[in-house]
Amino acid sequence: MTASPPEPGDHGGATLPARRRREVLRQSLYVGGATGAYGISFGALSVASGLTVWQTQALSLLLFSGGSQFAVVGILGAGGGGAAAVATSTLLGVRNGLYALQTSRFLGVHGIRRIAAAQLTIDESTAVGVAQPEPAAQRLGFWVTGTAVFVGWNLMTLVGALVGSAIGDPSRWGLDAAAAAAFAALLWPRLRSRDAAATAVLAVFVALVTSPVLPAGVPVILAALAAVVVGLRHPGRHERALEGEDGTLPGSDPVP
Amino acid sequence: MSTWVVVLLACALAYALKLAGYLVPERWVEGERRSRVTTLLPVALLAALVAVQTVVGDGGEVVLDARAAALATAVVLLALRANFLVVVVGAAVVAAALRALGWS
Description:
The structure holds two protein chains of two kinds.
Chain A: H1 18-37, H2 39-48, H3 53-63, H4 66-77, H5 82-107, H6 111-119, H7 123-130, H8 135-163, H9 175-187, H10 194-210, H11 218-222, H12 224-233
Helix pairs in contact in A: 1-8, 1-9, 2-3, 2-4, 2-8, 3-8, 4-5, 5-7, 7-8, 10-12
Chain B: H1 3-23, H2 26-29, H3 32-55, H4 66-79, H5 84-100
Helix pairs in contact in B: 4-5
């Protein structure tokens, strides 16, 4: 450990104790592996929907956001038209822009690294990043997970596009459940904070209630309002109470 | 629209959205309240995503199937303080086993 404070744009991994570093790396690679493997079903579905191997690979390299990619090929495959495909894909992509509001704060990137960070800003890299308590681990988790998913997803897309569905549906192996479980595990420690728990409950409620009546993708974006409602309401009881801003909470919980 | 136009347009818009989050002026997201909101945003989005991925069917209705059982398994394992890999693999095994038994 050096006495000098870490640079804002520093990769940060070096300042982590070895044990934490291994922990974050392991988490990142598990998430990268499970998600990357899913690229095979995207590749297979895309070619089956009538896209060429190059078009399929372009989506994984340039769009690089699973939900949006499945929407594009699903809608094109069903004869839904280009405008609908682009619109749905873009709607699903709003999530990444909202993630970036938070990831940009702990990454502190500029120039070429910001260009790269933006492309890697997806569910998985954000989830692993924000799950870490220390800034150095947040940066390490984001970069390693984003890179692992990018490499795995693109390689498996190519495999899926070339060999089709010969390998079978990854959901047969429970890989879809593995991805959801990984997100739940990454969120879990944060739910000890009352504000985060309230946000999660409200977000789930909003998403489930609006799912039957709104197009796919919109309920999750709408659930972002949960963060706005809880965040603006009052200083978190388990977080620092504010001084001087609309009164601190009387009898706020002494539990850390 | 040709397929290539659709593909490249979707890619350009997706990247623009990602980058937009990085280009938002800092003073829009600074301050205690706004910073609380941006900190809670991933929690809200990921919690909603997990819910939609595990209990919402193709028609948008709530469906309890192997996905929900797998998530329930994950939550139990988390409550028992199981480590990350056990949680993830445990959920996958439950989903795969239930599907193999024909309960989709």
